[in-house]
Amino acid sequence: MARYTDEELKEKVHNGFIVEYPDEMTEGYRNALIVQLLVQADTELISAPAYFGAAKDAPSTNTMVSATAIIQDELAHANIAYRLLEDLGMDKEQLVYGRQAHEFKHPYGFDHPLENWAELVVANGLYDRAGITLLGDVFKNTSYGPLKRALVKVDQEETFHLRHGEMWMKRLSAAGGEAKESIQRAVDWMFPMAVEWFGLPDDMKRHSGQLDYKLKGMTNDELRQTWMQSTVPLCESIGIKVPAHWDEGRERFVLDYAFPCEYDEDEKRWLMDEGGISWSQVFERWKGRGPANKRFVESIQEGRAFRGMLEAA
User: Fold this and answer.
1) What is the pLDDT of residues 229-240, one digit of tens each?
2) What confidence tens digit (pLDDT) does each residue in 204-236 have?
3) Pick from 25, 32, 36, 20: which is nearest to 1 by CA?
4) How far apart are CA 185 and CA 240, in angstroms?
5) Which residues lie across from 263 on neighbouring strands?
6) What does the buried/exposed string (b/e) look like for 13-42 if buried means 16 or more CB atoms within 10 Å of the residue's CB?
7) Within 176-255, where are the H helices?
8) How far apart (Å, rounded) are the C-alpha atoms in residues 179 and 122?
9) Contact between 151 and 139 (Cβ < 8 Å)
């Protein structure tokens, strides 16, 4: 039996109490923490096959090593989050190898193949920035002690991934010509993908409990603004166009298109000219998963068969 009621625990964590053990949680706290950790773990895991496909396009041995190091980090980060889920009674083996592809909880953006080096470095610059925005907030605010300590290492390594992406975005943009155009094409489809990544606007947000239990500190709109505060100036500084700008009157970044809008998976293109769609339509798209969902999950789960072969040898 939990030591506290839900209301008692919510008050304690907002007064600075740090939860360390399962018997200090209520069922509501535990469920909200599991949802958060599962999204974190699955996102880190499925980023690996997405990044691996494009890493093969690395321009040199040195850059291939850097890209591979990032993939290794992502897999280690996934392992950390799954290990924390084990402390909450979840089975890591089942979570990684026992689920169908559509049951994983990563963002829709990671169900899309990255097809060249420019797309990989833009993913580092935009997606890893989204990851740092989310996990940086969790590290600063979370009431769950084991997660806060684990994120010290994760955030440092994610910062390296972001710097890698920024450095290459600047380098390819400065080169001009096809190199710069390849960065622009990648930003064109990944910028709105990352904006959508932060989820429903606050005035439509479903109650998740993560703010109530102080598992994170910022709302979806606050996180989206934080991401744009660094992403938009970065792109503008290197001559890359983004569909967003700073609005002096509202003192915030605003999008230059109806949000959310439809996405053409085959063309890798957002249909901004066709106006907005409902969030119900977005949820249907997310639920259907992206074009590489099954392939990416299978590429991870194939590791179990290979491990079995080694153990049987």
Assistant:
1) 999 999 999 999
2) 876 668 999 999 999 999 999 999 999 999 999
3) 25
4) 10
5) 270
6) beeebebeeeebbbebbbebbeebbbbbbb
7) 177-197, 220-237
8) 12
9) yes
